[in-house]
């Protein structure tokens, strides 16, 4: 059994990042670690806020995880501290390869059961939050996107909990492959087909249609 650790649980709370001149004019990307146990519902962590529901949150993006190992790479690259929550993540993990996580694999953390559903596509608000020029381009080139999670069984989680990968589908479609197929290597999108049923519900028909178009004769 693959086993990692939950280093921190982060939520945005009510102190949202202002975005003057933007619509919406606030963002929940600025998440901070919280102490103790945190309740997890079907749509996310207690106290967390997702402002732009078109791109964030929902049943297949209820929780976002980012690996300490990937954060360490960015900290060295940029010469700055990147504490838990700085990537807009809810869960900071250690000991798991999130880029190599398979869509549909299930994690037991505390009393909660999660399912890996998707990669995270960086947005302009992420670049503004860090104030790093070309961050979206650099983040895309790096390809360590972190993983979105669906909540299969509600419960609670807390820093220090074990993260146990309790099952893993055999199709081999990873978070990293999905990220490449939706960003820099879009001709690879048909490779996602075996894992379509694990994507967030709001994305399945859209991705399936794109695959169909790619597979159609020229």
Automatic annotation (TrEMBL):
SUPFAM superfamilies noted in UniProt: PK beta-barrel domain-like (SSF50800)
Residues covered by the MOSC domain: 32-166
Database matches in Gene3D superfamilies: PK beta-barrel domain-like
Secretion signal span: none
Record-linked Pfam families: MOSC
Single annotated GO MF: catalytic activity
Top-rank taxon: Bacteria
PROSITE patterns: MOSC (PS51340)
Record-linked InterPro entries: Benzoxazolinone_Detox_Enz (IPR052353), MoCF_Sase_C (IPR005302), Pyrv_Knase-like_insert_dom_sf (IPR011037)
Name by which UniProt lists this protein: MOSC domain-containing protein YiiM
Record lineage: Bacteria, Bacillati, Actinomycetota, Actinomycetes, Geodermatophilales
